[in-house]
Amino acid sequence: MAELRSGLGFSSTGMGDREFVFTAADFERVRKMIYDHAGISLAATKQDMVYSRLARRLRETGKRTFTEYLALLERGDRLEWEKFVNSLTTNLTSFFREPHHFPILADHLRKIQGKQSIKIWCSAASTGEEPYSIAMTVVEALGGFNVPVTIVATDLDTSVLATAAKGVYPADRVDKISPERLNRFFTREALTAGGGYVVKPELRRMITFQRLNLLEPNWFVRGPLDALFCRNVMIYFDKPTQHKILTRFAPLMAENGLLFAGHSESFLHAADLFRSLGKTVYDLAPKKR
Fold first, then answer.
1. Of 111, 132, 233, 235, which one is least surrounded by beta carbons within 10 A?
2. Positions marked catalytic
């Protein structure tokens, strides 16, 4: 899923220079709306950031005030809701980010490779680097592209999913991938002055990209999941929301399935659901098996 933007907005000392009036009440309405819709907890310090991101939406929709813009959302404009959420989220990602997780995944895959079908869910696909890293690990661990593995990659942000599905990356996004992997999994194209890389079709076909909001009541993803990547997502939810999502994850997990979290995340408050294996990897708590 998308991470909150940390880019600089207008400073609070520069409020007189703002194009639109943005009151504390407006900010509180935004906080409530994004929390209710996506479960994201906006810190009180994010007021300037929120203004700078949403001011663009006011310009594009032709609204003169935040009151008018938020009323548009409250009337249920589905397309604008999507753009509202996309504006308040970003996607800090890279290929093989938090690299210690991928050898663990590879070992796990080799242990279960006799299964008729292996299922993996990447629940915060962003622009695709994470699910493609998972797919590369699958190919390397199991010896080829034609293996009985299903990879589902989801995200709240539709714009980044479109990028992920294309599988096209500038050279600086793949500069930490080894030459061997680049040769095996990508083709070089002169997309820009500096060139670019395209994910090979056989790797791209291993992944299904689809929008999913973790706060929605119904998920299309089905278990049993042998691996679930939910990295650098939970830090933007409060503890009750985290526990609610983890409670829904648990029944989807295979008995020995692994849950991968981000380096700054801890699920120890959900010890009734998941057991820590170290290195921000979890499996089901014994009583949930």
1. 111
2. 53, 155
Instruction: Say what angle helices 47-61 and 78-87 make with each other, to 10 degrees.
Output: 140
76 lies in the same domain as 118:
no
- In sequence order, what are the residues at sequence separation of 6 or more whose Cβ sits closer than 8 angstroms to the Cβ of residue 281? 101, 104, 258, 259, 260, 261
Asked if residue 78 has pLDDT above 90, the reply is no
**What's 172's domain CATH number?**
3.40.50.150
Cα Rg of the chain, angstroms: 20
pTM listed for this prediction: 0.77
What are 25-60's pLDDT values in tens digits? 999 999 999 888 777 778 888 899 899 889 999 999
Tell me the pLDDT tens digit for each residue of 174-205: 988 999 999 999 998 865 555 689 999 999 99
260 closest CA partner among 41, 98, 40: 98
Domain count, the chain: 2
Q: Which amino acid is at 255?
A: E
Q: Is 74 left (phi over 0), alpha (psi -120 to 50) or beta?
A: alpha
**Claim to verify: residue 273 and residue 160 sit in the same structural domain:** yes
Shared domain check, 193 and 233: yes
Whether the predicted pLDDT of 9 surpasses 50: no
Domain assignment of residue 35, yes or no: yes
Two tokens at 163?
């990028």
Annotated binding site for S-adenosyl-L-methionine: 91, 93, 97, 130, 155, 213-214, 231-232
pLDDT band at 8 (very low <50, low <70, confident <90, very high): very low
Q: What is the pLDDT of residues 203-230, one digit of tens each?
A: 999 999 999 999 899 999 999 999 999 9
Residue 92 lies in a domain: no
Tell me whether residue 183 is in a domain. yes
Annotated binding site: 91, 93, 97, 130, 155, 213-214, 231-232
Residues 187 and 82 in one domain: no
Domain that holds residue 176: 101-288
